[in-house]
């Protein structure tokens, strides 16, 4: 009987969804800068690690993550109804 290691074959992006979608600026001394989306910093780390082809743990330690924008900054439906 063969067994698979835990997580093998599971979807790659299974990070827990919490809070609004955010836009992060990611700066790293070796890889440069990029922007990525994620609900959490953890999601952003996973996305940028795939983009740059490196380990997420290394990026989590070495990169700077600056939150540029999140969905809560968008005007709500109430503002649209009031015409503002």
């Amino acid at each position: 009987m063969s067994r698979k290691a835990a997580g093998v074959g599971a979807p790659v992006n299974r990070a827990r969804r919490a809070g609004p979608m955010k836009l992060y600026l990611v700066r790293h001394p070796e890889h440069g800068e990029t922007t990525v989306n994620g609900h959490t910093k953890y999601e952003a780390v996973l996305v940028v690690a795939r983009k740059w082809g490196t380990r997420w743990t290394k990026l989590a330690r070495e990169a700077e993550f600056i939150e540029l924008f999140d969905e809560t900054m968008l005007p709500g439906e109430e503002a649209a109804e009031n015409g503002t």
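The two ends are 65 Å apart (CA to CA). Residues 43 and 66 are 14 Å apart (CA to CA).
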